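Suppose you are handed a protein chain with no further information: no name, no annotation, nothing but its sequence. What can you learn? This example shows the usual starting point.
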Amino acid sequence: MAGFRSLARQVRDPRCDLALRRYSLRKCLERFAPYGHRATWDHLCSRAGFGPEDRSPDPARLVAALEELEEARSVWLAYEVEFAQRRKKEKHDGLRRPGSVDDWHRLTWGGFGVAWCDDPRVHPREPLAEVLRRLIAALEREPGTVCPVCAGERLTWRYDLAHEPSSGPVCTSCGIVVPRPVLTPEALAESRRGRLLMSA
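A reasonable first move is to predict its three-dimensional structure. Written in structure tokens, the prediction is:
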């Protein structure tokens, strides 16, 4: 099974058939897809300027999509290294019980679904790396009341999400499932009330 870097080389390789280069980019998303596979693909296509169903996109656009994905992946991998070092130090210092950020992080190890978008057509417009930087910054500060990615104030609790956790607060502006650890208890309760008002 090819790894992310091997697939990335195929995307860049002009000697490879265009269909293989496109396929390799799609396969990269099996290794790293911050919004989930379908939403990340839709995001990359729209930012690079080719259609999700385009079978023969301009190779330069494929590479542009790959470069955005690689930058985001490097941001996330750096965070994971810091996270692992912090946990190691905490364990050394006797803090064995992980916190809520740690519980959330276990579900997203490797970067899949860190900013899950349940609707693949609704996702942030900013570059992936910027979205991840904002999310990481939110994980490293005190909980807030708005979406850490777009500062949207309308968060609605949704059930039956296609990712773990299977329910949670969704930003109605950018579409991400907001990680619970970045929100105050009051903001979480408000998102649940929003759900009740919408269904009434």
